[in-house]
Amino acid sequence: MQELAAAAGSEEERRQISADVPHRMENLLSKYPSEMLAGLKVNAERGLAERRKLHAEFVDRNTSRWKEGFDLLELQIEISIEAGDSFTRRLRPKATAEGDLVFDLLVRLQAKGILVAKEILTLLKNGYADGAHGRWRSLHEMTVTAMFMLAHGQEAARRYLDHESVDAYRAALQLEKFVSRLNTPGFSEGELAQLKARYDAVLDAYGKDFANAYGWARPFLGKGNPNFLSMEEAVGLDHLRPYYMWASQNVHASAKTIKTSLGLSETVSEALQVGPSNSGMTDPAHSTAISLSQLTITLLRLAPNLDDSVMMKVLLLLTDEIGQAFVRCSENPIA
Predict the structure, then answer these.
(1) How far apart (Å, rounded) are the C-alpha atoms in residues 165 and 161?
(2) Predicted confidence (pLDDT) per residue in 136-172, tens digit
(3) Model pTM?
(4) How many domains is the chain built from?
(5) Sign of the dihedral through C-alpha 138, 144, 150, 152
(6) Which structural domain, as residue segments, surrounds residue 132?
(7) At a CB cut-off of 8 Å and minimum separation 6, what does 300 contact?
């Protein structure tokens, strides 16, 4: 546009060119981006293949550096699967017959915890320590919840399950507020009415404070408006709060988040991380081992036999070994 204006022979031509600029820009923006994207797609396969090759080579180097720790953490995950499966098979018939809500919740929490631990291991192996740390935060929450259920029994489990009606209704109202902007159909009047009826029913049963985020836990904590910290304190895991807050930095967009990274913990100069790194695995890995062992042991403590008692000790020993192994691996040179 500037070249056209410079080549104009008169003021009238310059005015005409200026007047035509919006039309020319609109025409350019309506065609050029799609043409550019089509060209990028044509050439993408070669570039993507090269990037995948480079990442596979990185994973090999990363695994080589942290192999001892990765192998032990993977072993712990497999042991937890087998322990949970054996325990569930043994006690499921009795628990089902008795309508044991605590049993069902602990089994589900441990299964979900194993899934999260596998996600964490995948992130670590692929060089994303900060992402793994953020996922550990979720695993810690599951562990605290499981320990709380074990401590407070069937009534806590029932209230926890019934609180889903509060969460569901509030989520539906949130969605309805933005259906047009989200371009989603939302809920029908009948569906909303049904959700509202469930919401009203649990508030009638438990009181208006039940609508709070942790209202289901209120009778067991002696606080008017309990929160997750209250639960951590109740089960004796509040000493992990500093690590929980640290991991939260990888979930929220705080100033700390954009200035620090586990993946940059061994850099000597200013850098911005936009891809994988083979630094910073120790804390998220050991935290995962601790929480997964706590979660699995909580399940086994519900009704342990001799095999379960042995397995609890095995998990505790392995957790310590995992921490020590990752410290040793961190001393290996960066490949």
Answers:
(1) 8
(2) 999 999 999 999 999 999 999 999 999 999 999 999 9
(3) 0.90
(4) 1
(5) negative
(6) 69-330
(7) 83, 87, 308, 309, 311, 312
